[in-house]
Amino acid sequence: MRDASTREPQHASCCPPAAGKTRPTASLPARPPGPTPARPPRCIGLPGARVPVGTLDEFLPWDGEGPPRTVNVAPFAIDPFAVTNDWFDAFVSTTGYRTDAERFGWSLVFAAFLPGGANATAPPGAPAWWRRVDGACWRAPEGAHSNLTGRLHHPVVHVSWNDAVAFAAWAGGRLPTEAEWEYAAAGGTPGARFPWGDRDPDDSTFLPLNIWQGEFPTRNTGSDGYLGTAPVDAFQPNGYGLFNMAGNTWEWCADAFRVRSLARAAKERNRHARASDERLLKGGSYLCHRSYCYRYRIAARTGAAADSTTGHVGFRLAFDDYPRSSPNTP
Fold first, then answer.
1. For residue 205, what are the contacts with CB-CB under 8 A and spacing of at least 6?
2. Is the pLDDT assigned to residue 31 strictly greater than 80?
3. CA separation for the pair 200, 287 (Å, rounded)
4. Residue 5: pLDDT above 80?
5. Cα dist from 269 to 68, 194, 304, whole Å
6. CATH number for 295
């Protein structure tokens, strides 16, 4: 295990604190009305297996990246793409569903995306680059002045774990577990650090995913072609044909967030996670950079309250039926 004593401050999570501390309590919505659509035929079927989860090489041990364990996973299918704005719009149009961000009236937006002179407050306890923006939601990602023009095939953002579960129920699927997510992300190479292998991305020549390039959070060169979200089919897929399992947006998983350790700090972290109803997130986002948030590794993880919504969190679906054909079309 690597010594974390000098790394924790530099590698704090890019995610904000639990929204549940500042928002009214919300109950998990019931399954929205409307017909359940068929599972997209593009979904990739993965056979049952005993799969490794976590890592011995814990870069961020306070996140619970280890100890490694082996988990039995039943056959399942997973979408090669994160849920898009276009698909989420179909869900809302069919059901009339309102997301947590819409009901609460605000969400968190990366400060650099706001127009000059925008008067948006910094949430208490959040990193300095987050702003509470009234009206920000999935259909207006940067607030009332913004829309989805040119972003229909980008991943939906400003969706809470509650929203993701509601969408999954409508779509006839579910959120993947952490074990399923890591199995899928490894692309057939168990123990790989990244979906493409073990080579670290850099700021200029090797750019296999959508993360930050430059000095975070003040200068993003956009060398990978994107400053915010990218289309869900951007970059090369992994060995299983899955796109953007690292970078672009964090992805909600089914699991509650917990750290597997008996250490006093872990017990306190778990107590806080239970009190805040934190759920697991995997994959990192366009705000990750090795100098600050090295969480685009497969074993990396973080947690956020089930009602949290930000401009860098989305999700993808898993299904319990097992398809045999998988055309990769968004």
1. none
2. no
3. 16
4. no
5. 19, 26, 12
6. 3.90.1580.10
